[in-house]
Each structure stands twice: as structure tokens, then as C-alpha cells.
């Protein structure tokens, strides 16, 4: 009899642990703020349905929701990499679904972009830029207000005008665009940021292969287009009229915003665009481009210290 009794005692002991464990898990699950909110939204769910689905609710609780606990796409902590859990009620029962995380969606989009356009490279500090890091800077007050306004409006509908940031070298113009791109990403709006000198080079190189139309299309229709350092590129009449002009024309007609950074004010940029490699001045053509720049963006000046020195 001895072995049976000790087995029985062991079983009862384990069972007690199990029950205590179960109660603890149940309490943890029901105290989870998101699960609480979910259950409040669905008062029709009975205790027995909740008990039956405890493991599901527990799984939901342990997973990162839309990357809230993950560092990056590569650092996803979820059971299914790049997927985020969602609770639903169907036919009186609880269902646990997994949806793509925005980091995954963004990763896939970027992959797609990288396959098409080689020069969409962002330096690391710009890639990690965040609006929270720039908020307390008084000299940038106006630019940040404009940026936040755009962001707020973008949550209901993408505004038809972006911002043209101009100011001296190193004040953080490109950084602002990076921070905006990251904030927009959280609202599922993708941005395409390209450095103008690279842009010209890329487009010139793709005349040889057949990718130029596909690339043009891509820049015309991107949600938010960000042209970094306009005016710093080698001036070419072809690029100005056939590429830049037609992308801006399209976006103007379709009410799609464009952001710019530049060392030049809009008036100075017009003069810059008038000087082409053909020699001579082409004020009329430059003026036509400027009209479109003004349609798709608002001019905002940015001053302050040169951050590259510090
Ligand atoms: P610009 O485009 O105006 O020439 P950048 O945006 O490249 O200037 O900024 C210059 C440097 O300062 C970069 O290394 C950038 O990461 C850094 N920087 C700019 N603004 C900030 C900020 N608000 N917080 C932290 N670093 C910043
Ligand atoms: Mg810059």
C-alpha cells in the first residue's frame, strides 16, 4: 500500500500546486489592463467562456502588442515572429488571431523599396530619430509645431501639403524628416526619403536599363515623399524638367504631400534651378518648378546651432 499512498499524496500535493497556479494565472489574466478592457467591451461573455479560454487569454497577455515590447522587427519577442495577437468575439466565444505587426509591414515595404531603388539609404541617427527627442528645443519651436500639426492631420487624412524646411547646414533638418517618418510609420503611413544628389545619380543610371518608368511611378505615388537637400544636386535640365517637374506635377494633381530640406529658401532655390549644365539662365522653367514646390509644401525656416560640431 505504501507506494500507492505516497503516489496519491504526491498527486494531491501537485494538484494543490496546480490549483494555486491556476488561480494565480486566472487572477493575472483578469487583472491585465488590456484584457480587462476587452472583457468590459464584451459583457456578454460568461464566466465559463472566460474560464474555458483562460489559456488563450494568457497567451494574449504574454505577447507583445504591435511591437510595444520589441526593440525592432528583428527583436520580435512573439511566438509568431512579426505577428501581433488580437482578441475577437465570435459566436459568443473568444478567438485569438494574429495580425502582421506594423514593424513587419514596414519591413516588407522597405524590402520592396530597396529592391527597386538602391539609394533609399538613411544614416543610422536619422533612422532612429524620434519626435520625443526634439520636443524640448525652443529654437525649433515653429518647425516642430508644423511637424506635429501635419502628424495630427495625417491621422484622419493625409494632408496635401508637406513642409519645405530650409536653414543652415547641421541644424537638424534631415533629422526632423527622419523623426516624422518614424512617427508616420506608427500610423501606417510610409515615407520615402531620398537624398537629392543620390536621386539624380540613380535616375541617370536607370536610363540605361528599363527601370526608369517604374521608379518614376514609385516616387509619384509614394504616400509621403521627402526630398533631402534639394539644391545640393548637380543641376541638370533633364532631371529638373523631366524627372523632378513631372513627379511634382503628378503629386500636385493628386494632392500628395512632399517634404523638402534645403540650405536655400524657396526664392534662392529658384535661382539655383535656373542654372543648368547647359549654361545660361532658365528662369521660366525654374519658376515652373517652384510653383509646384509651393503647391506641395509650405516654407518653414529652421535655425539654431550646428549640431554636427557638438
Ligand atoms: P541638417 O540636415 O540640417 O544639415 P542633420 O539633420 O543632419 O542637419 O543634423 C545634424 C546632426 O545633428 C545629425 O548627426 C543629427 O543626428 C543630429 N541632430 C539633429 N537634430 C537632433 C536632435 N533634435 N536631437 C539629437 N540629434 C540631432
Ligand atoms: Mg541634411
From TrEMBL:
It comes from the Bacteria. It holds the Pfam family Bac_DnaA. Residues 159-290 form the AAA+ ATPase domain. NCBIfam families: PRK08939.1 (NF006505). This is Primosomal protein DnaI. Gene3D superfamilies: P-loop containing nucleotide triphosphate hydrolases (3.40.50.300). It comes from Lentibacillus kimchii. Transmembrane segments: none annotated.
Amino acid at each position: 500500500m505504501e507506494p500507492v499512498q505516497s503516489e496519491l499524496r504526491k498527486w494531491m500535493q501537485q494538484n494543490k500546486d496546480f490549483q494555486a497556479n491556476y488561480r494565480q494565472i486566472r487572477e493575472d489574466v483578469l487583472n491585465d489592463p488590456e484584457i480587462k478592457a476587452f472583457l468590459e467591451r464584451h459583457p456578454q461573455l460568461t464566466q465559463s467562456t472566460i474560464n474555458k479560454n483562460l489559456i488563450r487569454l494568457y497567451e494574449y497577455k504574454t505577447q507583445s502588442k504591435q511591437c510595444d515590447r520589441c526593440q525592432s522587427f528583428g527583436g520580435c519577442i512573439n511566438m509568431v515572429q512579426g505577428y501581433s495577437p488580437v482578441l475577437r468575439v465570435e459566436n459568443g466565444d473568444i478567438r485569438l488571431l494574429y495580425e502582421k505587426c506594423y514593424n513587419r509591414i514596414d519591413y516588407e515595404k522597405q524590402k520592396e523599396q530597396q529592391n527597386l531603388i538602391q539609394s533609399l539609404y538613411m544614416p543610422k541617427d536619422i533612422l532612429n530619430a524620434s519626435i520625443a527627442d526634439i520636443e524640448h528645443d525652443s529654437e525649433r519651436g515653429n518647425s516642430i509645431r508644423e511637424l506635429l500639426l501635419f502628424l495630427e492631420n495625417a491621422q484622419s487624412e493625409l494632408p496635401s501639403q508637406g513642409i519645405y524646411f530650409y536653414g543652415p547646414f547641421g541644424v537638424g533638418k534631415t533629422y526632423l524628416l527622419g523623426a516624422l517618418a518614424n512617427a508616420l510609420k506608427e500610423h501606417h503611413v510610409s515615407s520615402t526619403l531620398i537624398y537629392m544628389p543620390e536621386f539624380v545619380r540613380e535616375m541617370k543610371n536607370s536610363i540605361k536599363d528599363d527601370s526608369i518608368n517604374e521608379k518614376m511611378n514609385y516616387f509619384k505615388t509614394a504616400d509621403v515623399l521627402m526630398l533631402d537637400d534639394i539644391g545640393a544636386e548637380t543641376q541638370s535640365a533633364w532631371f529638373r524638367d523631366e524627372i523632378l517637374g513631372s513627379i511634382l506635377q503628378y503629386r500636385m494633381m493628386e494632392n500628395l504631400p512632399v517634404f523638402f530640406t534645403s540650405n536655400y529658401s524657396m526664392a534662392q532655390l529658384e535661382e539655383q534651378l535656373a542654372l543648368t549644365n547647359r549654361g545660361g539662365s532658365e528662369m521660366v522653367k525654374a519658376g515652373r518648378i517652384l510653383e509646384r514646390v509651393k503647391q506641395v509644401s509650405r516654407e518653414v525656416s529652421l535655425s539654431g546651432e550646428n549640431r554636427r560640431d557638438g
